[in-house]
Every structure is written in C-alpha cells, then in structure tokens.
C-alpha cells in the first residue's frame, strides 16, 4: 500500500516536471534544453521588431498555425506586454543567411535571424514542439536555447506531374510538407512524354492536346482495401496548370522559403509535345503518348529535331514564358535518356553535324544543350540538367543533377561545375521502401528509410575545394506508378524528413537511433492529420 502511494507520488511529480520531449527534425545544430516551460495560452502576444511584408507574412503563417492547434488567435503588437513571442531581424553570429537563434523562457520566446528565411525556419522548429492537431490542453513549450543553420543550400524534392497529374491544391500541400522540414527547392517536373502540364500561351495545343491521354495504366493503390485497384480507368486523363495557378503556387512556395525550379524536358522525353507539334520532331508523322510510362518500351522515341532551327525557336519561346512565371535562377532542361535513333535517321540532323563538325550524336546533344544554355544565360538564368548533359561536352556554366549514381556529379565538380546530388540509390523515392510483397507496386529498387538517412552528399573522391561545388541533394518522385496523392504521401513519408536531416544537420550529429526516436511523434502526427506514410518493414533496417 505504502509503496503504491509512493509510486503514485513519484509518477505524479514526474508528470508535473516531465520535460515534453523535443523531437525536432532536422536536428538543430545546437539545442540546449532547460528547466521549465512556456505555457501557450490565449493571453500570449506576438511582437514583430522587424518591418516588411515578408516578415509579417511569416508571422501570420505562424499565428495561423498556432490557431489551428490551439484555437487561440494570438494578437500581433508593435510592443507586446506580458508573456510574449518576439520576432526580430538583426545580426546573429555564426548562423549565416538561413540560420536563426531561438530562445524559450517561461515568459518569453525570442526568435532572431539575419534574414526572413531564418525566422521561417525558427517557426518550423517551434511548431514542431506543438501538438500536430487541435488540442484542448494547455500547450507547454519546453524552455530551450537553439542556434541553428543548414549544412547545404540545395535541399530539394522533385515531383513528376507528367506521368500523373496532381491538382494545384495537392501541389500546395506537397509544398507545405517540404516547408515543415526546412526543404527549400521544389523541382517541378512539368513536361515529359506522358503529358504536358504547363500552359504556354503561344502554343495552345500543348495544353489542349498534350495534357490529355487515355489512361489505361493508372493503377491506383486502394487505401481502404490495402490492395491494388485493378479497375482500368478509360476516361480521358490529364490536366495542366494555368499560368495564373502557377504564379499562385510560386508565390505560395516563396512565402515558405521554397524556390520552385521548373523543368521542361528536352531534347527527349518529349512524346506529348511531339504529338501536339510533330513539325518540331525529326520524324514528323503521328506521335502518340498514351501511357504514363510512355518513354519506355518504344522502338524509336521522338526528339526535338536538333537539325531544325525552328525547333529551337519553339523551345526558346516556351522558355520565355516559363522564365516570366518562375523567378528561379535555375531552369531545368532535362537532357536525360535521349534516344538518338531519330537523329541518326534524320537528314537535317546529319547535315547539322557536318556543318558544326560534330563527330557523333552525343556531340549533337551537347550542341543542343549548349544552345539552350546560351539562351538562358542571355536571360540571366542558369541551366541545370540531368547528368547526361556531360556527354559530348558540358555547357560552360551548366549545373549537373547527378542521378545515375554520383559519378556524373563527381566528374562535374572536378571540372568546377556546380552539382546537385540525386542518385537513384538512395534518393529515388519511386523505389520500394519496404518488402515488395506488401508494398504498393513501385518502379523498382530499394531505398529504405535507413539508406536515405545514411546518405552522404559529399563523395570521398572530392577534395575540399571540389566539395564546395556540391550545392546539396534532392530526392525525386517519379510517378509512373503513382496515381493518387495518398500514394505520393506514402512514398515521401517518412523518407523526406530523413533526407531533410541529411541536408540540414551537421554530419557529426547524424544518429540513426536518435532520429528514429525523434521520428515517432512525427508519425503520430501524420496519423492524426490523416497523412499516409510508410511504416517501413524492410528487415535489413531493423
Ligand atoms: C529515369 S531520372 C528517368 C525518369 C523515370 C525514372 C524512374 C531521369 C532523369 N529519368 O524518366 O521516371 O528513371 O525511376
């Protein structure tokens, strides 16, 4: 009896003093927990000591998120009194352009950064200490001091909206998730063989025709039955983003410190565009694009004709409209998996090779990309492309996205070109993350959570100068097999948060066991918010 009372007393005091665990992902560079807590209630006021639209946007993002979980609409004041949360822009030592300093005491939370980006990231850290969904309990934020900044400046995630289309609303939800984990590049794969997804005013057939197909391949994961839905969807399938919608998404992302990098694939992966405008291909007969995996399993793939100047004009006109919509310095021009057969069969291409002194079709591809780079550079933009752009000679200022392993990236960095690492293993999120027997059909491969978490973006082959060319890394979600947004979520959760930690936190702090522990409350949050995620069941990781 006495020992029962004692245990009860101990449990009670433990409960009163228990520090709610802080489970921030990505792990902050410096985090020091202290005794006590800031109790968030309806009397808390917010103070902004920095003016400007961007800062007030971040503050209303914060108060909006707090309102969702607490119900309190915290007032924003020029001079807050009492228990308060202070945002300020000012000098912060050692945390750089994206870093922040966050201090939580029982009466005051202070957030300081040299740029709005840092304030936004501090907000993300703070929000991760709140419940994931509406609660009627008092919210305790543990007292702590954080100073934090990212390891890499390119923390990216690509979404392929060509193979399957996702509405603007879903794209925004995707962006929200990236923002929650301090990711800052959204690579938007807007055009591929299976569908064109961006309105181009000059070429209406791209959206009138090339955005629609008969989808006889869309196997959607049936979430309620946990089995494949084998129904064949014969309806017209597709969609595209209007320029207005794109502007809105770009602004939405910018308010979350995310740059949207658009990709327009060339010279291959172009079946959809070629079906609408066959005159710009080498084989100007009928082209079709009926399947999400349209690039695969054909005899000859159409390419933009490298021997036809009007094909370049076509693409440059498209890029002009693209640049007007996307402020991103980088414009992605694809460049991967070009089937050179049509160029080999094309008289004009062969003639071009002769007049330009090009030895083979690889050099013709390089000529193609060089020409696009010249155009982009003249418009004050930078070209980025998949690692095939190295073949036949890299364009002088191009940045390489290394997907066929890291060798392309290593080579480019050794040539003093910037690089974004995105090797299929482990950064292709269309690959399996668990046992294929129980997982939804995936493209192939195995990229388990642990493999993602263990990824090191700087290859040992690079010396410290060359390593500076590695801007960061990104994961790619190709959607041949992914027809629903639930499935998108399932493929990126929780692998994306693992990648976020790889890209933000220090190399020394990486700890799989600790990450796993911090991840658990996030999984509960996903559950509570109805977000599908993989529980992971791949034995090698356990
Ligand atoms: C290769 S990665 C592709 C994509 C496919 C992907 C499937 C790359 C630049 N090209 O077209 O969707 O594999 O994993």
Automatic annotation (TrEMBL):
The active site is at residue 337. Residues 152-506 form the Glycoside hydrolase family 20 catalytic domain. Coiled coil: none annotated. Its EC number is 3.2.1.52. GO terms for biological process: carbohydrate metabolic process; glycosaminoglycan metabolic process. It catalyses: Hydrolysis of terminal non-reducing N-acetyl-D-hexosamine residues in N-acetyl-beta-D-hexosaminides. It comes from the Bacteria. GO terms for cellular component: membrane. Residues 23-149 form the Beta-hexosaminidase bacterial type N-terminal domain. Keywords: Glycosidase, Hydrolase. It is an enzyme of class 3 (hydrolase). GO terms for molecular function: beta-N-acetylhexosaminidase activity. Belongs to the glycosyl hydrolase 20 family. This is beta-N-acetylhexosaminidase. The chain holds residues 1 to 542 of 771 of the full protein.
């Amino acid at each position: 009896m006495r020992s029962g009372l004692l245990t009860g007393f101990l449990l009670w005091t433990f409960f009163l003093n228990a520090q709610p665990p802080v489970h921030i992902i990505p792990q902050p560079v410096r985090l020091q927990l202290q005794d006590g807590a800031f109790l968030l209630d309806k009397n808390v006021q917010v103070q902004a000591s920095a003016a400007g639209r961007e800062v007030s946007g971040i503050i209303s993002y914060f108060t909006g998120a707090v309102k969702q979980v607490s119900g309190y609409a915290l007032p924003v004041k020029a001079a807050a009194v009492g228990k308060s949360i202070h945002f300020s822009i000012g000098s912060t030592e050692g945390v750089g352009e994206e870093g922040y300093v966050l201090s939580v005491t029982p009466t005051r939370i202070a957030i300081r950064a040299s740029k709005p980006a840092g304030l936004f990231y501090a907000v993300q850290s703070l929000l991760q200490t709140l419940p994931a969904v509406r609660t009627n309990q008092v919210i305790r934020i543990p007292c702590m001091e954080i100073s934090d900044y990212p390891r890499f400046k390119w923390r990216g995630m690509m979404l392929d909206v060509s193979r399957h289309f996702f509405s603007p609303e879903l794209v925004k939800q995707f962006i929200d998730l990236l923002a929650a984990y301090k990711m800052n590049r959204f690579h938007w794969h807007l055009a591929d063989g299976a569908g064109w997804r961006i309105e181009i005013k000059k070429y209406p057939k791209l959206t009138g025709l090339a955005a629609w197909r008969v989808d006889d391949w869309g196997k959607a994961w049936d979430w309620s039955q946990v089995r494949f839905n084998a129904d064949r969807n014969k309806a017209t399938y597709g969609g595209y983003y209007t320029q207005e919608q794109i502007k809105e998404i770009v602004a939405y992302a910018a308010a979350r410190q995310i740059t949207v990098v658009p990709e327009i694939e060339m010279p291959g992966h172009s079946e959809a565009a070629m079906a609408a405008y066959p005159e710009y291909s080498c084989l100007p007969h009928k082209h079709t694009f009926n399947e999400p995996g349209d690039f695969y399993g054909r005899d000859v793939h159409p390419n933009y004709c490298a021997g036809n100047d009007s094909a370049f004009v076509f693409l440059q006109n498209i890029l002009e409209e693209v640049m007007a919509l996307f402020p991103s310095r980088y414009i992605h021009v694809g460049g991967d998996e070009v089937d050179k057969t049509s160029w080999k069969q094309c008289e004009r291409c062969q003639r071009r090779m002769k007049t330009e002194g090009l030895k083979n079709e690889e050099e013709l591809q390089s000529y193609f990309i060089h020409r696009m780079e010249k155009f982009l550079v003249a418009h004050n933009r930078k070209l980025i492309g998949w690692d095939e752009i190295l073949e036949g000679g890299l364009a002088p200022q191009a940045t390489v996205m290394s997907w066929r392993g890291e060798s392309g990236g290593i080579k480019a960095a050794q040539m003093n070109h910037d690089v974004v690492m995105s090797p299929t293993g482990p950064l292709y999120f269309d690959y399996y993350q668990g046992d294929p027997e129980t997982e939804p059909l995936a493209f192939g491969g195995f990229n388990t959570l642990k493999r993602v978490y263990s990824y090191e973006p700087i290859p040992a082959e690079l010396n410290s100068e060359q390593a500076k060319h590695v801007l960061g890394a990104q994961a790619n979600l190709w959607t041949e097999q992914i027809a629903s947004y639930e499935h998108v979520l399932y493929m990126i959760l929780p692998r994306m948060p693992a990648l976020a930690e790889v890209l933000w936190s220090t190399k020394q702090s990486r700890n799989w066991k600790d990450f796993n522990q911090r991840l658990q409350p996030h999984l509960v949050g996903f559950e509570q918010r109805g977000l599908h995620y993989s529980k992971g069941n791949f034995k090698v990781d356990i």
